[in-house]
DNA sequence: CGATCGTTTGAGTTTGATCAAATGTGGTGG
DNA sequence: CCACCACATTTGATCAAACTCAAACGATCG
């Protein structure tokens, strides 16, 4: 269903706005026609990944920036003994590895959690951006700062909140992030995670995920069935998770509910 | 003692290397004489903060970048009900708020945990950097990517590791970060935290911090007295914390122990 | 020399993990 | 269409990690 909505946008609107990255960068600045063209021109080969495939692996050389066009992916790290922590979810418009500049190798992996379409922008193109398009560079930089803001909130989540609060918070966050790219319909969005995946995200065991989900459901806040999350009472969910959307730095137009 | 070592460096070396920010940026690239001069020229008024003072507060307008010259500070967020999570430690050379570009307001606060000296680089100067010095811009950007890498590891810490492992991991991280700027002597470094502060960092209660510290001490890995942390057995501490320094992206010259 | 703040210890409680097993559910092939 | 398999969810029982509360003890400082 994600793909059908992208198709709809591509028919109805200009190429610029159909490009998820340009839409994302436009949240921060107004890109000139030239800058948009540069982004589109730099967008190279496209790749498809199946559910579960690694898009980038720890230790890989960072060759360029991969932009998610469709689907959802996640960053994660695995400890020697198998424990796994999800670090972020990537939705259309997000970049996998603006780490091109950081050392040569990825210090974590990224996996597709649905069928995911990715476009590559070469390292050379990004370097060229920084040389020629200061405004575009700032917009890209802004993306990394936004990622950071989200990670800070996740730190608070894992460090201070209870399992119940964490889960409520995560569901609120995804509601707003996906809402901002038009992927929320009827107070519902696609969240193709298993309970194990949720556990690896929230730092709790699968069993406890299950009980916490039941708790949220019994209180009438959400339902989560076969990868579809429905929010029945957003204000209640937000207060359950101590959620405050400021950190997402959404533009006003995205903030209406 | 931090301040005396800075003074020593300033006498013995060129002004460029004495500037903590230039030293930090030099980890990523070679700055030209002109770029160094631009950084030094942009370094404006200096401010002193006492232990416990807020350097920046949540909601503040971001006016410019503040660089830590001496001392240690921490980023933190507080929930409505008082729970507090430390998000990062800032040591000399680190920047408080490269968030100048992100929305106007800080979404978290920064506090001095020792007497801290800070220099301000105006927003205009940073914008000018991005217009005129692509190489310098990339170096600044790299700093935010490094911050991100550290935050990712903290996420793993809070999400997956036990209290004992978390603490071991944190002590390893600070050992290497402070070591890279010459602040480790005799396997010891200044870590001016209370047990409450450690708890807010590691997501555990003060009481549990105390017991975990005792545990680490009894096993002969560290001692932590009056703000001085001594590492008695670094390899053991690293394996206790599942620590792998790759994520710090240290240069080889810093990696010797 | 109180007063304040930080550390330490003990006892009881809670949260969440682990282990084990039962119960869906969706797909595949006969 | 059914049997079967793999995988995910749900439930119960037990256990361990970490929290809370309470109190004592130790520094440090005006």
Summarize the structure.
Chain A is an alpha+beta fold. Chain A has eleven helices and ten strands. Chain A has helices spanning 2-12, 15-18, 20-25, 33-42, 123-132, 134-160, 163-180, 195-202, 206-218, 234-240, 252-255; strands at residues 43-49, 54-56, 64-70, 73-78, 84-90, 109-112, 116-122, 188-190, 222-225, 228-231.
Task: Give an account of the 3D structure.
The first copy, chain A, is 46% helix and 20% strand. Chain A has 257 residues and is of the alpha+beta class. The first copy, chain A, has two domains: 2-150, Jelly Rolls (Sandwich), CATH 2.60.120; 161-248, Arc Repressor Mutant, subunit A. In chain A, the strands form three sheets. Chain A has a four-stranded antiparallel β-sheet. In chain A, a hairpin with a 2-residue loop joins strand 9 (222-225) and strand 10 (228-231). The model of chain A is unreliable at 1-13 (pLDDT under 50). At the A-B interface, strand 5, helix 6 and helix 8 of A face strand 5, helix 6 and helix 8 of B. The structure holds a DNA duplex (30 and 30 nucleotides).
Summary tags:
homodimer; 257 residues; alpha+beta; Jelly Rolls; Arc Repressor Mutant, subunit A; 4-stranded antiparallel sheet; 3-stranded antiparallel sheet; DNA-binding
Question: SSE layout and pairings?
Answer:
The structure is a homodimer of 257-residue chains.
Chain A: H1 2-12, H2 15-18, H3 20-25, H4 33-42, E1 43-49, E2 54-56, E3 64-70, E4 73-78, E5 84-90, E6 109-112, E7 116-122, H5 123-132, H6 134-160, H7 163-180, E8 188-190, H8 195-202, H9 206-218, E9 222-225, E10 228-231, H10 234-240, H11 252-255
Antiparallel strand pairs in A: 1-7, 2-6, 3-7, 4-5, 4-6, 8-10, 9-10
Helix pairs in contact in A: 7-9, 7-10, 8-9
Chain A binds a DNA duplex (30 and 30 nucleotides) through residues 162-163, 194-196, 204-208, 210-211, 213-214, 226.
């Amino acid at each position: 269903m994600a793909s059908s909505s992208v198709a709809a946008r591509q028919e109805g609107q200009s190429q610029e706005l159909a490009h998820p990255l340009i839409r994302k960068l436009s949240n921060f600045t107004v890109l000139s026609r030239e800058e948009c063209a540069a982004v589109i021109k730099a967008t190279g080969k496209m790749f498809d990944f199946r559910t579960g495939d690694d898009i980038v692996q720890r230790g890989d050389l960072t060759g360029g920036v991969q932009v998610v066009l469709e689907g959802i992916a996640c960053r994660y790290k695995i400890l020697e003994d198998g424990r796994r922590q999800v670090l972020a979810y990537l939705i259309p418009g997000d970049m996998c590895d603006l780490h091109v500049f950081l050392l040569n190798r990825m210090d974590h992996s990224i996996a597709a959690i649905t069928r995911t379409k990715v476009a590559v922008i070469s390292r050379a193109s990004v370097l060229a951006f920084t040389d020629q398009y200061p405004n575009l560079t700032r917009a890209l930089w802004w993306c990394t700062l936004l990622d950071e803001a989200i990670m800070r909130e996740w730190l608070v989540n894992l460090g201070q909140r209870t399992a119940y609060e964490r889960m409520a918070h995560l569901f609120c966050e995804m509601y707003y992030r996906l809402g901002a790219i038009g992927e929320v319909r009827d107070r519902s969005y696609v969240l193709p995670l298993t309970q194990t995946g949720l556990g690896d995200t929230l730092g709790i065991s699968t069993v406890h995920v299950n009980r916490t989900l039941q708790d949220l459901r019994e209180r009438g806040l959400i339902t989560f069935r076969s990868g579809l999350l429905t929010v029945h009472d957003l204000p209640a969910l937000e207060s359950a998770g101590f959620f405050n959307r400021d950190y997402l730095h959404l533009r006003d137009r995205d903030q209406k509910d």
